[in-house]
Write a structure and sequence with these properties.
Number of helices: 15
Oligomer: single chain
Structural class: alpha/beta
Order of helices and strands: HHEEHHHHEEEHEHEHHHHHHEH
Helix content: 40-55%
Number of strands: 8
Radius of gyration: 26 Å
Strand content: 15-25%
Shape: elongated
Largest sheet: 6 strands, mixed
């Protein structure tokens, strides 16, 4: 006999919120999570509770209590158990890694004695209790193991590569750089290939980062997009020799502003560069560039010389199919990703060490990667 599922959690959660407002958030979230986990178990078992079916993959085996500390308070959950099949609810794992990493980073500040009153309050709010060194050690060890597996996972064919760097503050070391690399798979999905943290943008850091990607099986790359970072060019040519490189057009336009004889020319030069970038093909782009160089040769000679030497580096995109060019002519995709990381890191302000920064950045990027790989395609990768 088949018993249809009872979707009571949502109705009860709405009733709690209607009766108690914000004070009922924790209880409402408990109900919703419990309902989601119960339904997820049914999907894994391929059978509803008490249902008799040949499709069944295992059996329900009751529930196990679990307390989760959240921003809305302690959640006392009932985690569904199974028999004859492995199961752990994604509702408890997916979406909480970055929260756990943020908690760990703040907790380390607290334990290391560098916290302020503000940080102390945030730690207690996030953790729901006072933080001891043993709690921090256990939390970070579990999270680091999971994140390290993700950072070292095998890679495969990635036709397009996009990489960028950004800066954070770490106690004692001062300013450090964290580097991330995105790829476009042969199927057209975006994926985060790796992340690394170092105290500089020197060639050795880029080179070791690239070597690590190659050791994990990265191959099949035929196009690279990045800004003109310090130390990047030598490492790129050493590890990806012969691969066409596209200098980010967005950053190049910002760089051009340093060569203007006066600020009044900003709009004019920006429009000139956009006209070059929007050409229908490489030949026309080269023609427009040559025209712009002649135009500014006398009125802005430094700009003209800079454009002649640098703008061609941003025209490599014309080697790609026309339908890919708009999305692959800048590294803005990574800029948006960096803003998401910054949204989390600004709460910490100054990280206690490199490991705390790497932990939080990895957790955020791992979640983004899962969403990208399971979501819509970014590019249509059929050949011409």
């Amino acid at each position: 006999m088949t018993h249809p599922p009872q979707f009571t959690g949502c109705r009860e959660a709405i009733q709690l919120l209607a009766e108690h407002g914000f004070d009922g958030l924790a209880a409402a979230l408990e109900l919703l999570l419990n309902e989601v986990m119960r339904l997820e178990r049914s999907e894994v078992l391929q059978a509803a509770p008490y249902e008799r079916t040949d499709r069944r993959q295992g059996y329900a085996n009751g529930f196990k209590g679990k307390t989760v500390h959240s921003r809305v308070g302690d959640l006392h959950l009932k985690v569904p158990q199974t028999r004859d099949v492995d199961f752990y609810p994604q509702a408890l794992e997916r979406g909480v890694r970055s929260e756990r990493a943020l908690t760990a980073a703040l907790a380390e500040m607290y334990v290391c004695g560098v916290s302020t009153r503000k940080v102390s309050r945030i730690v207690e709010e996030l953790c729901g209790h006072q933080v001891s060194s043993s709690t921090v050690s256990r939390l970070t060890a579990q999270l680091d193991e999971e994140l390290e597996r993700w950072r070292q996972r095998p890679l495969g064919e990635i036709p397009y590569l996009i990489f960028d760097a950004r800066y954070e503050h770490v106690r004692h070391q001062g300013t450090v750089v964290d580097v991330a690399l995105i790829g476009i798979t042969p199927e057209g999905h975006r994926t985060v290939l790796g992340v690394s943290v170092s105290d500089s943008e020197a060639e050795v850091h880029w080179r070791e980062f690239f070597k690590g990607l190659l050791a994990r099986g990265l191959h099949g790359f035929r196009y690279i997009v990045s800004d003109d970072h310090a130390g990047l060019e030598k490492a790129r040519t050493a590890c990806f020799a012969g691969v066409p490189w596209q200098r980010c057009q967005f950053h190049l336009m910002k760089n051009a502003m340093a060569y203007l004889p006066n600020e009044a020319m900003q709009d004019e030069v920006t429009a000139e560069l956009r006209n070059i970038f929007d050409a229908p093909d490489r030949a026309e782009a080269d023609r427009r560039l040559a025209s712009a160089v002649r135009k500014y040769a006398e009125t802005a000679p430094k700009l003209a010389d800079w454009m002649e030497r640098n703008v061609p580096e941003s025209l490599t995109v014309f080697c790609l199919p026309a339908r890919h060019r708009v999305r692959m002519r800048t590294s803005n995709m990574l800029e948006r990703l960096n803003r998401e990381i910054k949204r989390r890191t600004r709460v910490v302000s100054i990280f206690p060490n490199d490991a705390a920064l790497l932990r939080l950045a990895s957790a955020v990027l791992m979640e983004v990667d899962e969403d990208w790989m399971s979501g819509r395609k970014y590019l249509t990768m059929e050949t011409n």
